[in-house]
Design a protein that fits this description.
344 residues; alpha/beta; eight-stranded mixed beta sheet; 12 strands; globular; disordered N terminus
Amino acid sequence: MSEVDTVSETADVGGPDAAENGPPLVRVERLKKHFPITKGLFRRQVGAVRAVDDVTFDIVRGETLGLVGESGSGKSTTGRAILQLDEVTDGTVHFDGKELTALSSGEVRKLRPRMQMVFQNPHASLNPRMTVASIIGEPLREHRSGRGGNRDEQIDDLLRLVGLDPIHANRYPHEFSGGQRQRIGIARAIALNPDFIVCDEPIAALDVSIQAQIVNLLERLQDELDLTYLFISHDLSMVRHIADRVAVMYLGHVVELASTDDLFEAPRHPYTQALHSAVPVPDPTVEMTRERIILTGDIPSPANPPPGCVFHTRCPIAEERCSQEAPEWRQVEGHWVACHFADR
């Protein structure tokens, strides 16, 4: 996110509708994750890749927050940092009132059953040497949930819950299709009855015909199990379908955050407008007449981000001020947005 110094610590930085639904289950404040760049025999640090740079948002219980942006914008790193799978460089992450970034690894492990992840590639995230029953049963064993026959019953119930036949529990991942493997990954994620799941591009590696089935499954499980999602994707159409609110990332910063309807009906940030214009419309008449926003140039390197607004090098409305002054993270007509000209 761009500079948020002007936002007080007590301000509602969760975005529109966040505070209305109760206290947040997850609160991310000024989160940074920088990867060091080293050089020479002694691996001296000469710089850093600013994968996530000053990100702030809330997720309230029971909602789905969509996180969108181009590849390399920092979406997946944000999800991993929230779950403490990657060590945070700076900032804080609160989960149900507990500051995860201040806890020891042992204390975080105790909370791990309540925070899970569905990974992007079901071909790589499942151990090919383990049966489906072993994969789903592993978190149950690690956290001592269920024993013996009771654990076998839990595994069978989880398979049924995600639409798979328990009779195949002793098969290996290579014997399943991509969509079935992702269902196995989802079953593993919900095995310990979590409250919060980071869905890291869970449909990106799947055929288009299967993607809707997985999204519908996630929605059904959310209703039945009272789950809260951070849904990471570059597919705006799917995000529009599943998310209650959407945060847009660019070069490690959140540049806009709004309710799904508001964001798609009237995006305020130029980058969001460009992303929105690239989504096909299933109406030939509208598709032929609507204006596309084509961004010029390449995404700057996160190892050397531009000064001022990080988007100014590609922005169609940028002015001299944009290259010198980072925009304030502010609320404009129901949107949280980091742009000097968002209220034009």
